[in-house]
Write a structure and sequence with these properties.
Belongs to the class-V pyridoxal-phosphate-dependent aminotransferase family. With 393 residues, this protein is an alpha/beta fold. It has helices at residues 23-29, 39-56, 70-81, 95-106, 124-133, 155-164, 213-220, 233-240, 254-270, 272-293, 319-330, 357-373, 383-392; strands at 12-14, 62-66, 87-92, 110-115, 137-143, 145-146, 151-152, 168-172, 191-193, 207-211, 308-312, 332-336, 345-349. Helix 4 (95-106) links the parallel strand 3 and strand 4. Helix 1 (23-29) runs antiparallel to helix 9, helix 10 packs parallel to helix 12 (357-373) and helix 12 runs antiparallel to helix 13 (383-392). The structure holds pyridoxal-5'-phosphate (PLP).
Length: 393
């Protein structure tokens, strides 16, 4: 029997990413493929860099999308900025800090871990103590928006603290970019990476990155070659670089880049501040509905991410059954817990294109139905109205 074309169902993606992709982005991706050195494509790449600078709020020349998912953006930062023997303070308050540690160690660096409880922001005092105890530290790395728990850390003050101690900073902004206030130049972030499938609502598989002057200085003065050929910025820049002639490094994912270009045009049309405000407003509406049901957030209010809502699963409720029922009956995907939170929390994403009124009301209505069917200890019939009240203001 011949295998036929694949036709995925139309889901509502309200997990930790990927988020719903705008039809405009999907349409852009279906446009004719160009050669990766075609002058028309190259001028699109120049626009892309400008659009990314806007999204990151930076003038950094070295701002571009790495041709691979967010994890590759993470790796790009570490392999270029960490040399064998370098000490790196890694703040861990969830899954992704653990991956940073792996990266440091695979670069031959020494990771000094600053641990915080999962579900809390990174504690500035602990970072300061670690910097004082390790005056030879070269880099401080942390996750701005910890998608595994829904906690947001104080990027601005963490960067200021690292600089006070003469360290460079690597910031994970995979989930924060376009969803929460993020100002690369104003906060003086040295190296930052993001992803396309969270609040940019593009398809997965690209990782916007940006590097400032101090980071470039460090890369220029490396004693050793970057151990990854593919992610070595000196080589990548022969393709993505400024005014110099573009040379082949790897074949860019042409049509994916059309999609990112369109996603960034959409962001520009909405306005970055308006996008941040929309994520916050929709979070408040969802929160009102969830709290009316009696569901509890994992993260204290002042440290919560608007785009990722982590909730404690009520006592006695079958996590997998609820999520499967939401998927089968409502085409609705919400996220499971990761790592130590597996089986204990649900993660409801309100990211990018998916952060809208319809999704909030569908999600609350669906939860109301499914939690009622499994006889969960929650208040039924009140969530949608509670959210509506916030949305109408
Ligand atoms: C999703 C995510 C990543 C990894 O991105 P991929 O595109 O899955 O490789 C890294 N850090 C954070 C905080 C994320 O949410």
């Amino acid at each position: 029997m011949a295998i036929k074309s694949f036709h995925p169902p139309q889901r509502i993606l309200m997990g930790p990413g990927p988020s719903d992709v705008s039809p405009r982005v999907l349409e852009a991706m279906s446009r004719p493929t160009l050669g990766h050195l075609d002058p028309v494509f190259v001028s699109m790449m120049d626009e892309m860099k400008e659009l990314l600078k806007y999204a990151f709020q930076t003038k950094n020349e070295l701002t571009m999308p790495v041709s691979a998912p967010g994890s590759a953006g993470m790796e790009t930062c570490f392999v270029n900025l960490v040399e064998p023997g370098d000490k790196v303070i890694v703040c861990q308050n969830g899954v992704f800090g653990g991956r940073m540690k792996e990266n440091v160690e695979r670069c031959g660096g020494i990771a000094v871990m600053v641990q915080d409880d999962w579900g809390r922001a990174v504690d500035l005092q602990k970072v300061e103590d670690a910097l004082k105890a390790n005056p030879d530290t070269k880099v401080v790395a942390f996750v701005h928006a910890e998608t595994s728990t829904g906690a947001q850390s104080d990027a601005k003050n963490l960067v200021a603290l690292a600089h006070k101690h003469g360290c460079l900073t690597i910031v994970d902004a995979v989930t924060s970019l376009a969803g929460s206030p993020l100002k690369v130049d104003e906060w003086a972030i040295d190296a930052i990476y993001s992803g396309t499938q969270k609040c940019l609502s593009c398809t997965p598989g690209l990782s916007p990155v940006s590097f400032g002057e101090r980071a470039l200085e460090k890369i220029k003065n490396r004693k050793n070659k970057v151990q990854s050929w593919f992610l070595d910025l000196n080589l990548v820049m022969s393709y993505w670089g400024g005014s110099t002639k573009r040379a082949y490094h790897h074949t860019a994912p042409i049509n994916s880049l059309y999609g990112l270009h369109e996603a960034l045009v959409i962001l520009q049309e909405e306005g970055l501040e308006n996008s941040w405000a929309r994520h916050q407003k929709n979070h408040l509406a969802l929160r009102a509905g969830l709290e009316a049901m009696g569901l509890n957030f994992v993260v204290p209010e002042s440290e919560r991410l608007p785009q990722l809502n982590a909730l404690t699963i009520p006592e006695g409720v079958d996590d997998a059954l609820v999520r499967a029922t939401l998927l089968n009956d409502y085409q609705l995907e919400i996220g499971a817990g990761l790592g130590v939170m597996a089986g204990k929390v649900w993660r409801i994403g309100l990211m990018g294109h998916a952060s809208n009124k319809r999704n909030i009301l569908v999600c609350l209505g669906a939860l109301d139905d499914v939690l009622g069917r499994v006889k969960a200890p929650v208040q039924l019939g009140v969530a949608v109205a509670a959210a509506q009240k916030v949305l109408e203001n």
